[in-house]
Specification:
Elements (H helix, E strand, L loop, with lengths): L1 H11 L17 H13 L4 E7 L6 H15 L4 E5 L5 E6 L2 E6 L8 H13 L14 E8 L5 H13 L6 E5 L1 H35 L6 H19 L11 H25 L5 H28 L7 H32 L16 H17 L1 H18 L18 H12 L4 E8 L5 H14 L5 E5 L1 H12 L13 H13 L15 E8 L4 H18 L5 E6 H35 L2 H25 L10 H25 L4 H28 L7 H38 L1
Antiparallel strand pairs: 1-5, 1-6, 2-5, 3-4, 7-9, 7-10, 8-9
């Protein structure tokens, strides 16, 4: 154990946090391919949004501070371009030439010129609601980053510059890259805070449950298994994603269960006074080996069912969690018995304060009463439980996947606030990317792009669209002295080519955002004002229909962008979540049936955990809680955790059947033997997961609360529903 642990420790230093949405999708996803093209051909697809709220953006001191901030950001390595109020450009015709210049060449000093500038900007729909709000009190800086640069480092530098801004008001940062940085930083902070909290909670529960330092052995062994597992993560070079970040608390909470049952059984055997050290250990391993092995196997199968998920990070969680519980099992049946053998002093040294001995008489009376109550009221219990399951099932169809990254943050956090401001005043922060391949100088193709763009603006929640057509129209108008009738695409190929040539000679990057230098690829952007996956899906289908309507088959048009990336993640979760849950249930059923050599017992073992799953998703539907990237694993994880209780109960129940006695006596002895370990296990696991409610991220909070609920429900089901089922089954067989 020491050698393996020592070998794993160096790989822990290879661990790195990763929260980039793009990295969560398969590499061949169409949305990623489109963003890669935008990065290569148009200078980058990712940008940071800096929201500045103050009394008056057009106050001279505000514009000076804003201009200073823009110039400092532009100098940062990793920044490609900054769009803001002080960088706004306009096209002007000067004789036979075209000049592109900033609207604000110099910040006006007198009130009259400043008022004129204010009216000019707020009257122009190219700027109002795009970079400045309609009241002139809030502005937006869009910082485009260099592809493949150190993006999170750049975001940190932008944060520092924004914080140093000498303005009265609020400055906040958002955008996909900024959200990624916040998530990664808070993931690391959560791991540093929550893992020790989970350990402290388990220490308290185990000391109270066992009333002996031996109760800490399960925690000791599971921490070693955690080192092995995370060492394997580092060895394979896998990043710690927002999904994998929950692995340490999950493994510590779940993996301790095996050691709890081993130590609990050892105390039972040792306290009988008939076995010495070696015999007590032998009997412990003999009697608990099979149920603990079965518990590990079913848990690993439940966790491993996530391997069918289409999201790579969830698949890796399934793999590492299954390996982790195997490590925890191996240490529970080897390391813990070895330590118990070394430190116990002989049959005379009974543990008078152990899990069983200290509370033997009152516990025996309680479990005897419990067995009588469950046996007497079994049909009422089963009826009530069935009614609850049916009622919960009604609300399950309301549960849908949701991949809105903004919802990962608390509503009062800076990124959440910035996202709300952009949504309410600037038309949203998501942006569809439409790429058109062909002869872009062809007037007919440009006319189709123009018609398409006009209908694109009518798509629900599409607020602003931009393309080469807008550039050519404004250029044509400016070249003809601002006459309104020339606000159109030039009619001939020669005119289009002339304007494009003049624009390329202007020294501005005006064209680079919308067309490649060979004029074979054009870019259309559409700002979208909804984060919800359902609305993105509806927009995606409508935009796809418009593409089919307006472009012939010989013109290749590609739809992508960050909304498509989030929608791809939504689809991956939606199509594979149910498959993972069904696979977990089927595999666990087959495994339990095979071990106990009874299909009926396999089905009975699934009832408590199946009930917990149905009730949980019913509660989610009732409260409007949607499935996200982490809670998508809930079903399979709950099956893996909850089945443990059933396995231990059924294994001990069959053992007590061999010991003879009445049905009620057998049930009471079963409850007295495995009831305390199951309770201790359920409480320790539940409280361990409950610690996740203190996370900085809402997505982790929800996972912690929901998995705690399912763990408690599965534990109660094993101690209430399972005895009722076995009692009813036994009574029916006796009557027959």
């Amino acid at each position: 154990v020491l050698v393996v642990t020592g070998a794993c420790v160096p790989f822990l230093f290879n661990l790195r946090a990763e929260a980039d949405l793009i990295r969560l999708l398969p590499e061949n996803d169409p949305a990623i391919k489109t963003l890669e093209i935008v990065d290569t051909e148009f200078g980058g697809s990712e940008q940071v949004a800096v929201v500045i709220e103050t009394d008056d953006i057009f106050a001279p001191q505000t514009l000076h501070a804003l201009d200073s901030l823009v110039r400092r950001i532009e100098k940062l390595a990793g920044v490609n371009k900054v769009e803001g109020l002080t960088t706004l450009q306009d096209v002007k015709g000067v004789g036979d030439d075209i000049v592109i210049s900033r609207i604000i060449d110099s910040i006006p000093g007198d009130p009259g010129r400043m008022q004129q500038l204010r009216e000019q900007v707020l009257a122009d729909t190219r700027y109002r609601g795009v970079l400045v709000d309609s009241t002139g009190s809030t502005t937006l800086l869009l910082v485009r980053l260099v592809p493949d640069g150190k993006k999170e480092k750049v975001v940190g530098e932008i944060e520092k510059l924004a914080a140093s801004l000498s303005l009265k008001g609020r400055v906040s940062i958002t955008g996909s890259v900024a959200l990624t940085k916040y998530i990664r930083d808070w993931m690391v902070a959560d791991l540093i805070l929550l893992l020790p909290l989970v350990v402290l909670v388990l220490v308290g529960v185990l000391l109270v449950g066992f009333r002996s330092w031996r109760g800490l052995l399960p925690l000791f062994s599971v921490l070693i298994s955690l080192v092995w597992t995370m060492g394997l993560v580092g060895m394979l070079g896998q990043p710690v994603t927002i999904v994998l970040i929950v692995l340490p608390p999950v493994l510590v909470s779940v993996g301790s269960a095996y050691g709890i049952h081993v130590v609990g059984r050892w105390e039972q055997e040792f306290n009988k006074g008939r076995a010495g050290r070696s015999e007590a250990v032998r009997l412990t391993v003999k009697k608990t080996g099979l149920p603990v092995l079965l518990a590990m196997a079913t848990t690993a199968v439940g966790f491993g069912a996530n391997l069918v998920m289409r999201v790579p990070s969830i698949r890796w969680f399934g793999f590492f969690s299954a390996v982790g519980v195997f490590f925890a099992f191996v240490l529970s049946v080897t390391l813990i018995p070895a330590v118990l053998h070394l430190i116990s002093r002989g049959p005379g040294a009974k543990n008078k304060h152990g899990l069983i001995r200290g509370w033997a008489k009152p516990a025996g009376r309680f479990w005897n009463w419990w067995a009588k109550a469950v046996s007497r009221w079994r049909w009422l219990i089963l009826g009530v439980v069935s009614a609850l399951a049916v009622a919960a099932a009604v609300f399950i169809p309301r549960v849908h996947p949701e991949t809105d990254f903004v919802q990962y943050f608390k509503s009062n956090s800076s990124p959440a606030r910035a996202s709300r401001v952009i949504s309410e005043q600037f038309g949203g922060q998501l942006q569809f990317e439409i790429l058109v391949e062909g002869d872009i100088q062809d007037p007919k193709l440009l006319a189709r792009i123009e018609t398409f763009e006009q209908e694109l603006k009518q798509v629900r929640y599409v607020t602003h669209t931009f393309s080469l057509v807008d550039v050519l129209r404004s250029t044509n108008k400016a070249f003809n002295n601002g006459k309104q009738e020339f606000d159109r695409i030039p009619g001939t190929r020669e005119e289009i080519a002339q304007y494009l040539l003049l624009l390329s000679f202007s020294g501005s990057e005006f064209l680079a955002d919308y067309v490649t230098s060979d004029y074979q690829l054009a870019r259309i952007t559409a700002r979208f004002n909804k984060q919800e996956s359902r609305e993105i899906g509806l927009a995606f289908r409508r935009i796809s229909e418009l593409i089919d309507e307006h472009f012939s088959q010989d013109t290749k048009v590609t739809l992508g962008g960050m909304p498509m990336a989030t929608y791809s993640l939504h689809q991956d979760i939606q199509t594979s979540q149910l498959a993972a849950l069904v696979l977990a249930l089927a595999a666990v059923f087959l495994l339990v049936s095979l071990v106990f050599r009874s299909v009926k017992l396999g089905a009975v073992a699934l009832v408590p955990v199946g009930l917990a799953v149905v009730l949980n998703f019913g509660i989610m539907g009732l409260l409007g809680i949607q499935v996200d990237m982490v809670t998508a694993m809930l079903g399979a994880i709950a099956v893996g955790i909850g089945i443990d209780y059933s396995c231990h109960f059924i294994a001990r129940w069959r053992e007590e059947q061999d010991n003879g006695g009445t049905r009620l006596t057998q049930l009471a002895r079963t409850l007295e033997s495995v009831g305390p370990p199951i309770l201790t296990n359920a409480v320790s696991v539940g409280l361990g997961f409950a610690v996740l409610a203190f996370s900085s991220l809402v997505i982790i909070q929800k996972f912690g609360i929901l998995i705690t609920e399912m763990t408690v429900l599965a534990g109660l089901g094993a101690l209430v529903v399972l005895p009722a089922l076995l009692s009813a089954r036994r009574r029916k067989r006796r009557n027959q």
